[in-house]
């Protein structure tokens, strides 16, 4: 992944924190897995932000950068630096209040005072300050040229007493892979720096590689050199001091890899400039003061009908308003807007009954809930949260339409045309309406309206019937001229009908996908129950493991893996017969151990211990790598098929092992095989010590008894629940594993409580009550039933 070298802040959603909060409030539990459970694996996809990826990228980029240092003569670097440095500048984007908003680098390319930098460095409609290495500052009189596609801007400086030094543009078309270069810039707005490097490639980035809507669509220079925040806009020069590129992007994972816009793309921009005087530039994207008044700071801009609010306001909690000049009717009246937040932990929405300053109402999403607040002063002591409600109709990260109806003594509010609150309150009336934002939120607004009735009016029955008939014709004719002409008679009405139809179809598709998932889960539950519903000595543990793996892979080829394992068992039988032709059960179990871990290479996972594949026996079979419990499942099941008596699964805390017990107690010493460590043999005392060192708890005697197949399956599923809830912090993804676990172990109280919490999170209140009622009726040990009853009573009817 890439980022603009100025950096960015990722959005965050607090669903996991709410999940844990519910658990703590209900029972005082922490998000743990019952004793004896094992860690679960994560997804198999390559993670570009993993330590492994970072190490690989840094090793690659550093090696190229280090080579550049070796080949560049220090005196040559010093000479080039002295040549380039006078033409370098720091470019600062200033706020309207005079404060600094951002900083970047730039360089002069002509004696007339043209300065090149990145467009994202100067922003749009912002005052700009340019400072040279010697500390002199120059006025920017115009934006000579700018291009959003190339992320380039050319600034013209005002007249100076003397000619300014400048750099020549080289031919980026003549660059060869491996060419040595120097990069210049002002990282973090500090003094100028120079770094040697090399052109490691010239390439076009994959769509979305630098983020949605931010990835350049043209070939860029890939640089093996350190790139830091503030380097954006700096020059990349060859050993002649000619500019070959303009630094634009740096890699998110490593600072030793960046990308530059080729100098020849800058030349094409200079050939057709589009100069804009600064007095005009400063109005680009600004709000029309005849329509809007910003209150309490923040940065409000407008582009394409969308108003964007950035940065915290000056009010308490980062509050800022943007008050509309539209007249407000007498009550009752309505105010509406569509809003989209970059972070759901933020807050932004509607303002009404405003005095144009500190006093007003606010209706807005905040931390996943809808909030109606009455503000009567500058700080929290004069604020009253009138209502805070869950709103299932609110869609995080998308455009949501907020609508408020202000009556004489009541306020009614809707989200996406679903009413979410109706409250008696008549304290504030009259005034203005507009927009609000809080905290660090970046919020976008569109379609702000004030009127007597702003509800979405349904299509008339006649119109809906007519358009339905047109769509039926479309199914047969396609987008024919007659169909398009008919739909185009009332284009807005037709578009609305089509969008509503699309929404209905998408909702139906979602319902069918959910149904398909439920059908698949039910089928897996049935097959898993059937696999376990037989005497323990007849249970096929490999089949049990396959069914668990199948829950996440409906297309899993069961017959293929059954055949692969059966063939492996035949090979194991031949190996054991050869290795221990006259041996007893222990010798045969040791021979099987050698076959699995020495002959065909099964081993415990090291680098990717929490990889999902380690919990699925089909992947363990493919990769010869797994967790202790999945490796044990293969060992125990293969021993069962080969008729090796006394081999069993030992559910030690922290690490599952394979045990072997003699048929007659005391005839031979029992042994435990640590399958994660290549099948290393342990006595019970050694295994006890190993378990204690790992968990701090000595295993109970029953840990050395053969684990029942059902208990093994439960432990495997607990691994997967643990990874989703505790490690990946995506509790909603644990649903299928919990359902499967409770299908085979209905008395699993802890998991039943976890499912109740998940059901509350997904608004399945009836199902949550069923689980809580079961717990209250059966009263398994370890729960605080007073708090559980309180939690049950707090759920809505």
Would you kindly provide a brief summary of this structure?
With 797 residues, the chain is an alpha+beta fold. It is built from 20 helices and 35 strands.
Give the termini separation.
47 Å
Helical fraction equals: 25-40%
Which word captures the global form?
globular
Mean pLDDT: 84
Annotation field: number of helices:
20
The stretches of 5 or more residues where confidence is low (pLDDT under 50) are: 1-51, 53-65
What characterizes the major β-sheet?
8 strands, antiparallel
Proportion of residues in extended strands: 25-35%
Structural class: alpha+beta
Annotation, overall tally of beta strands:
35
**Rg from alpha-carbon coordinates:** 34 Å
Order the strands across the largest sheet as they lie in space. Answer: 6-5-2-3-4-8-7-15
3D architecture notes:
The chain is of the alpha+beta class and 797 residues long. Helix content is 35%, strand content 26%. The protein is built from 20 helices and 35 strands. The chain has an 8-stranded antiparallel sheet with strand order 6-5-2-3-4-8-7-15. The chain has a 7-stranded antiparallel sheet with strand order 16-19-28-21-22-23-24, with no helix packed on it. Helix 13 (617-623) links the parallel strand 30 (603-604) and strand 31.
